[in-house]
Structures are given as structure tokens and as C-alpha cells.
Amino acid sequence: MSKPKVAVYKFSSCDGCQLSILNLEDELLDLAGAVEIAFFLEATRRVLPGPYDIGLVEGSISTPHEAERIQEIRHQVRFLIALGTCATSGGIQALRNFTQVDDLAVIVYEHPDYLHVLDTSTPISQHVKVDLELWGCPVNKYQVLECVAALLQNRTPYLPTHSVCLDCKRRGTVCVMVANGTLCLGPATRTGCGALCPASGRGCYGCFGPAPGAEYATTAHLLQSKEHYPGEAVHLMRNFAGYAPQFREAVDALVGGSENEPAL
Amino acid sequence: MPEGHLEIGAIVTLEKPEFNRLLVAIQEQGYETLGPTIQDDTIQYNRINGLDDLPRGMTSKQDAGYYRLEYSGHNNYFDVTPGPQSWKGQFFPPRTELLTLYRQNKRDWSAEKTQPNQPPTALIGVRPCELAAIQVQDRVFLRNDLSDPLYLSRRERTFILVANCLHPGGTCFCVSMGTGPRSHSGFDLSLTELNDVFLMEIGSEAGRAILADLPWQPAAAFSLQAAERGFEYAIRHMGRTIPDVERLPEALLNDLENQQYDDVAKRCLSCTNCTQVCPTCFCWDVQEVNNLSGSEVRRERVWDSCFNPMYTYVFGGNTRPNTRSRYRQWITHKLASWYYQFGVSGCVGCGRCITWCPAGIDITAEANALLSEVKA
Amino acid sequence: MTAYSPQQTAAISLVSPMLPFRAEILSVQPEAPLVSTYWMRFLDPELRTSYQFKPGQFNMLSIPGMGEAAISISSDSNDHQRVGHTVRFVGNVTNAISRLKAGDVIGVRGPFGTSWPLEDHHGKDIFIAAGGIGLPPLRPILYQVMAQRNNFGRVVVIYGARTPDDLQFTREYKAWEEAGIELIITVDRGDEKWTGLVGVVPLMFYRLRMDPRKSVVYTCGPEIMIRFVIFEALARRITPDQIYVSMERNMRCGLGLCGHCQLGPYFVCKDGPVFTYEQLQPYFNVEDL
Fold first, then answer.
1. Does the structure show a pLDDT above 50 at A178?
2. Total structural domains within chain C
3. Interface pTM (ipTM) of the complex?
């Protein structure tokens, strides 16, 4: 039996998720033994022709060209995995969805007319059918490995969906919110990082996106009541996964008017 | 060395500096000595080798959703009430390997169970509520019909030195739950820290043997009286109370549609923190960790929580699909169902779930509200 | 009501209650779309004789890497040569089971839980109401009844499935009837060939005359069906202690240790799955408990 062919694609993103795959180091050889890396420009210039069995898609759709290209890729790929929070929710660049992209372009670029961008940065699932979403900014490399292993073994990958709080407690990390008054999005955020930020004394900023079944609006209200400056809670929720519908709605319920809307 | 009436139940005094020798004596019996230390701005249990490792002079300010360590200015070693960590993890670790499965070929496989391998451990400075919690978990994991082998192997190799409570914290309510401020049994040694000496009570033969070689003194009457006054002070200074604990089992299970559950559902985050800091919560899940080829699989036990939305998932639906139902499960289990399952309350009044709830939900306030709604 | 006890569960190692025993699949019998019965035999010959279960109990079936699933035992408790599990393929584990063939090795832990107290009901009329995948945990009862038919009064099986194709154990209906078991088979939706009854299980009670003094009801199936079966039984003055219900919850350990399957004060895996309605009454109608 020939090895399954894997392709890795990049859309609007920072390459961090692709780097996570390359960071597998110890496991990379095993992985290369189990699958054929057929298309992965970040790693090698060698390109094998499609179609591919597994497609890992990093990044969001933010240009007209990307919107076309993802359609082509969908035809090339049997099992499409959206890789990372850009691909699953639009990413940090989706902040522009909350404002006018033209206004921003004028500030940033000398010749904004050279830009060919869409008004919004959107997740892959808004354009094509996605078979599996892997959250995180960047993704957890072991979750990538688990997904590939699961596909090879013909099973559902083990991707728990509970809150980050459960991870903090399992690893013995002290709650930064209770012990330090630090705002933390952990109660509403999906596990996957292993509670990396709280373990470093920082609050979770929700980069793994909303945990299914969590209380987003209640969390938003609680965070707002503990703010150190006006708008802190909104800043926290409208962040890397801020365009995820659950976080978006929680912020909308919170703002309830423009006076608390923070400037970008 | 004084002539001895050193028997189980005896109370003697030990000069504070002698505590260092006490620890050495315990270590010489093969135990690793764990006790309260300051880590990450809270109290956490780590290896201790002497008095210098203890949080001398520290106390904690605790309220619903609030915890700060503070320096009190006194010289006591055991005055600070616990942080988020409990001793639960000693016997029931957050993650334990149960077994490893090896796949020989496509059809067949073998299973190898993990041998428990825990060095004997001495728990130093266990609070009465924490000892009560250990005893509650004993009823869960060491039933007549089934003992959990991993729990048992760790539990039976443990030495317990209790530190009775003289200065309870802001979320403590052990008096309501009948677990403190003083332990009466179930320990090897207990201490009550007075200003000048430790009052030591012998709880077991192992405890007696440890103390026998140390320069203990018979306890003076004024020391015993000072301890009694300390306990009376502690009883009067509980941060929280539940006045009608004995009414809870029946009242809660007879009133499962109480409107208070709608109210708490608006505040609760379903974040799982209360269950994870609780020293008696015992829920766990089994997870499989595969290697890439699937030839080797570790089956692990990890802490789970009834607030985890996936906890009650069965194919076709979730039997507890919202926060209201999850909070109801937790509080009715803790304060009511537990009696029917294990003959005791699942709550020991340690207050951790109050302190470490990011939303500041207070189990005593919720219980009292539930009771006040129920017809007496 | 029999409670879980070490004597009954000889196959659970008390030293290592989470360790699965290896069993070889002997054959796979398709029963309906996405439902098959797996006949299996322990590899350890000693276990084949020491393993005993009671009708209504379940095992945790497992495949390395996939995890465990609670599956009721659907075979004859007096058959020590093989154990049968009727599985519906709906999740990760059961889909993996669907790919197993004769000769493959599966993991088994058990048996767990309470059983249908058939031995207490000699001389009684037994009314069995099952829906869909609720019939397999009741099939061991039918084997017992056939072996000792004279010990019971009427034995009536009301069994319903969504469509005629979804009906399980159809090959056996004739043998059941010949053994003096009354069958009422119904479907939610018929097809062009179906000439039998159409309608949900609880509706079929209108066909029955039940003597409340000597009738017991055993029921298993979707919870909504159970709810109305109980309603119909109570309407016929069967008392709550004579109505037996097999419940389903998320069972992870089978030992009453992991907490997942709680329903009010009960661990469904240990105090159930078979309960009397009298036990369940305070909790059964509480939403989302």
C-alpha cells in the first residue's frame, strides 16, 4: 500500500502553524516514514502532483486570489484540515472585520491602491467544506500528529474540548484570576495548549477559540467586572479568535453600545 | 528523655526547634516528607526538610474568588490555611497510567498493567478538613466490594501528620461540616501550634515510634488550656456557615427544580475549577494515547469534571446539556447524593471551591438559598 | 433486585479492574443496518468457565487505541461457550468494532451492573417492551424463558423499530413464538412490503389485558419510549415496584468509580442499569438530571 500523500498549504497567516509541524523534530522522521510529504513549500521545494489524501491548510481567506485558490485546493484534497486559528476563525487579521479595511489601509500603506484584499478575513469553513478544525495560535504540534495518526488508524482523533481551567488544575497551575486578579479567558477557551499562558503567570487570551458548551457571555461579563482599564475584557475576547461567532456574540452582548468599544 | 506514658491518644509537647529532628526521624523511616511551602504566591505542597521550608508568619486572605498570601507578623509555622492544591493528588493523581496495550498485528494485542510505584510519603501539616477529605475519598476508592489498586497502593504507604487549625480562613466552614478545627482520629501524629511549643497528639503506633526518640515533655495544663481556647476561637471565627447541614440530603433531592438553579446558572462559567480544587471530587476519565503507528497505546486516567460539557455525552445527545443542570448535579452530589452513596457528606467545609471560583460562587450561600426556598 | 457484588463478577480482576480480558471474535451476525451481533470467546480457557453474567448486565468492550464502550450482553447466560454482544455502530469505538472480523481479538471487562430479576418472577406474566437497540439487553431473558417456559405465566414481547429493516433478531421470532412467547412487532414507518403493525411501542399496550396482581414489565429503549411505557403500565395499575427499566448513561468505568453515569443518587453502571421505576420515580421526570 502506498503511503498517504500530505499537502500543507499557506493562506493569510504567519507560518507559525507550519513551523509547529517542523518543530516536531523527534517525531518528524516517524511522520515522514508514515506519510508522503507531497507538498510543503515551507519545508521542501520538491512538489509531487496531486490529488492528496490529507491537506493541512494554514491561514485565513483575506484576498480575492485566496478565495479562488482554496476552491482549487478543495478539489485536490480528500481530507481537509483547517490548521490553526487563522484557518478556523479568521485569525488576528480578522480584527479588520470589525472596522473598515480601507480606513486601515490608508494608515498603514503609502500606496493602498496596490492592495487587493477582501473586506474581511474569514475561516476556511466559510468557503469550502472542512473535514476537521485544529485550533490554536499556533496549533499544538502533538494535536497535528494525533490527527495524522488517527487518519492513518481510521479513527476519530482524540481532541478534547473542555476549558483551559481543567488543564491548569491538572498541571497544578495557580489560577491567575483568583490569586493575582489577572484577566483570563481560560474558562471559555478550548483546551489544547496545555494552559501555557497561565503557567507563565499570564492570563489566557483565547487563542484556541471558544470551548464548546462554555458560558461565553457570562465569562465576558465577569471579565468586564474585573477590568483594570475600560475595554480590557473586549480587547481580550476580540483577539486571535475574536471573530469566532461565540466570542463575537459575547462581546456584542457586552458592548451593548459604542461607548465601550475600544479603538483598534 | 522523660519516662514515658507515650501511648496512642497521649498529648505531649515538643519544643519548636525539635520539629527538624521530627522530620528527620520520619525520613529515616523511609518517607519522603511533603508539607506546605510558598510557591507561585500560594501554599503548595512540596518536599520539606525543616522548619525553614515552612511558610512562617504567613496567612492568607480568602474570599469568594479571591486569594492573597499575606505576612502577618507572628512567628507561627502552621497558621496559613491551604491554597488551591489538596492532598487528593497524592492518592489520586491528575494523570495516572493504567495500562499499556501493545498491538502485535492487525488482529491481536496484549495488555500490560502499570505497576504502582510510589515511594512512601509523609504528609506534614494536613488540616483536619483535609484529613476528613482523605477519609471521604477512602470511602469512594476503598469500598468493601472493590478497592482501587492505584489509590490503595499509595494510601497504605502514607504517614499523616495533622496540623490542627487555630486561625481559619475567610472561606472556611469546617465547623458546619463537622470536620474541624481539630482532628480526633485517623492521623499518625497531630500537632497544635502554640506560641512557644507544638502540642503533639499520638494517633498511631507509627506516630508513637517516631516521637519516642525525641525530647518530648508531658503537656502542661496551661498548654492544653491554651489549645482549647484556640479551638474555641477558631470555631467562632469560621468565614462561612451552613446552619442546617443535616437537612440538605433530603431537601436538595426533593427539590430539584428549585429556582435558585436558574439563578446560579447565570453566574456559573462551567469552567470546572470548583471540582478540581475540591479535595473529595473523584471524577475521572479514561483517555487513550496512541503512537503514530498505533502499535502502542497508553490508557490513562485523568481528572474529569461534571462541569465538563462532554462529561455526560452519549451518542445522540447530552444528558446534562446546560450549566444549570451541571451546577445542580455538582451541589446535589456534594451535599446530598453523597450521603446515599458513601454514608457521608461530600463536602468537608475547606472552602476551596468558594475561593477558587473565578466567578465567586459560594457553595454555602447557594446551599442556604436552596434551603430557604424549600419548605421546612 | 440484585446488586453488583464481587461474587457475581468473577471476571473483573479486583487487582486490576481496568485491565481488559482478551476475547476472540468467533462470528459476526448482521442484524439490521448498522447493527450486528458479535459472538466471542475468551482466550483464557479458565475464564470461559468462570465468567458468569446475569441477563441485563453489560460489558465494557474495547479496542486498543479506540477506547471502551459499554455494551449490554445479548446472549444466553447459560451458554458458557460464547458471549454475544449486539452493537449499533454510532461512535468511535463501535465503528471500530464494525470493522472487526472473525479471529480478531477484542477487549472485554465485566460483567457490570444489575440484572432483570427473572428468578423473583416465577409464576408472573412478563411484559417486555423494547424499542430499537433496547431489545439486545432483554434477549437473555428470552433464552431463559424458553429454557424454563413453565415457570412463567404469559410472556409478551412488544418490540418496535423505526422501519421493518431495523427490526433485530427477525430470524428468531418464529422460535420465540413456538416457545409460547407472544410477539407484538411494530414499526414507526412501514414500507410497501410491511403488513404488520405501525405505531410506537407504548401505543401497543391498548392490545393488552394485564392483570396488575401478577404482571411485571421490563422495558428498555429510547428514554421517551420508556416514559410512555411506564405511563401505560401505571394506567393498567401495575405498581412502580413491578416496572423494571434499563437505563443508559455515559458509562466509562463500570465500577461506580469514575462518576460519569450518575443519575440522582445512583451510579447507573453499578446501581443499574436495571432499576425499578420505584427507585427512579423521584428522578426520572426531572429534565437534564
1. yes
2. 2
3. 0.93
